[in-house]
Amino acid sequence: MGPPTPAPAPARARRFGRPREGQSQSSPNLYVANCGPAVGLSYETIASVFGAFGEVKAVNPADESGVRVVVSFAEEGCARTALATLQGRPCPQLGGRCLHIRYSQLQLQPQPLSLGHPPPLSVVALMASELNISGLYLLHDFVSVEQEQALITAVDQRPWNNLSKRRVQHYGYEFCYATRNVNPKQKLGELPSFVLPVLNKLSMFAKLDITADIDLDQLTVNEYPPGVGLSPHIDTHSAFEGLIFSLSLAGPCIMEFRRYADGDWSAKASLGSDMKIESPEHNSNFIRKSIHLPPRSMLLLSGEARYGWHHYIPHHKIDVVNDTVIRRGTRRVSFTFRKVRTAPCKCDFPQYCDSQR
Fold first, then answer.
1. Residue 115, in any domain of the structure
2. Pick from 107, 133, 167: which residue ends a domain?
3. Are residues 308 and 222 in the same domain?
4. Are residues 150 and 31 both part of a single domain?
5. What ranges in 20-105 are assigned the alpha helix state H?
6. What pLDDT does residue 202 have?
7. For residue 101, what are the CA distances in angstroms to 94, 243, 293?
8. Residue 112 lies in a domain
9. Where is the Fe2OG dioxygenase domain (predicted)?
10. Which of 19-23, 72-76, 105-109 has the lowest mean pLDDT?
11. What is the share, in percent, of the chain residues with pLDDT greater than 70?
């Protein structure tokens, strides 16, 4: 039997639950791990290989990883044969990959979708202006390759503090993750001299009609290993003033911004960056927008972007930026510059403000 001609799928997959351990209930839908665009396998190629077992109605992403898909057959018997044949065995037609397959149950919402054009997981912006979030700015190539290396060398010569999944350094003031705040009476000292070239260059942002103070006095350096991200949060209003600068070094990532519909930041997304919260697939009560942060770029959060949107780095080793698969690399190092607040926050976003709640 030859491979099928891709046909329009009758519905778009809204969510695929990861199969439970030991699940055996038969289904025309197969959850296939170690398979997807992030490992160089197109949806058309996957449909062609599984089409040898019967009519394939659709191939959809199972989640945002790019390495797990759900193959939907027209009949359960075709899915049963494919599972028995391919489960746990190398597949020569898919680059010799050993597939991990289970039955899957779909939840569907009516929306026509062509198998040849699977839905984008999300549109990832390359420029801040594409997100239409007031107060968000991104400058590419803010530092040179040589400056990038000098900054990384400088922090690597200093001691790191270990968190559960990443390493950090604090300068000026220490950020306490347990309280998500700083003690303005406990100053560690001035910011290190190796960041002075970066601070001097921040005057470039003065052209963006920003009235807040750029006299920054706190720096947190984060080192992210592959696959480690940052849970959704808003930097505590009472801790820092209105400008937050984040310099990305060594590796790229995607940063997602979320605006919760009911403003319930304390219950839903204000947990510390190393605490477990709900996954995006299990909560739809927010607007989400994503941007790609390349190495050596400087991101500025001000105004609404700083006070009213949660920011989040997905815990992925591979990012799918529109049609391009980007591997994060061996490490990503970020320099986050802020100014410690010494009086209560009086911003225009009281629903997110701990000083006004």
1. no
2. 107
3. yes
4. no
5. 43-50, 76-86
6. 87
7. 14, 47, 34
8. no
9. 215-341
10. 19-23
11. 79
Q: Residue 92 contacts by C-beta under 8 Å, 6 or more apart in sequence?
A: none
Q: How many CB atoms lie within 10 A of CB 194?
A: 15
Residues 188 and 304 in one domain: yes
- What average pLDDT does the segment 329-346 reach? 94
> How far does the chain reach from its first CA to its final CA, in angstroms?
66
Helix (H/G/I), strand (E/B), else coil: 19: coil
**Number of neighbouring beta carbons within 10 Å of residue 97:** 19
Range of the structural domain that residue 56 is part of: 15-107
Say if 45 falls within a structural domain: yes
Locate 32 and state its tokens. 């296939």
The Cα–Cα gap between 261 and 258 comes to: 9
pLDDT value at position 212?
57
CA distance 82 to 352: 50
Residues 52 and 155 in one domain: no
What token pair was written down for 10? 């009758």
Are 240 and 345 found together in one domain?
yes
- Count of domains observed in the chain: 2
Report the candidate in 132, 351, 336 with the shortest Cα–Cα distance to residue 240. Answer: 336
Q: Are residues 220 and 305 in the same domain?
A: yes
What is the predicted pLDDT for the residue at 106?
57
CA nearest to 87, candidates 32, 126, 18:
32
Contact 81, 53 (CB under 8 A): yes
Q: What is the DSSP string of 187-245?
A: B--SPPGGGHHHHHHGGGGGGG---S-----EEEEEEE-TT--EEEE---TTTB-S-EE
Q: What is the pTM of this model?
A: 0.66
Structure tokens at 177: 């993750």
- 241 in any annotated domain: yes
Domain of residue 34, CATH code: 3.30.70.330
Q: Bigger pLDDT: 57 or 173?
A: 173
Q: Which residue type occupies 99?
A: L
Q: Are the beta carbons of 294 and 324 closer than 8 angstroms?
A: no
Task: Report the mean per-residue pLDDT for the chain.
Answer: 81
Of the residues 107, 142, 173, the one at which a domain ends: 107
Q: Is residue 94 located within the same domain as residue 133?
A: no
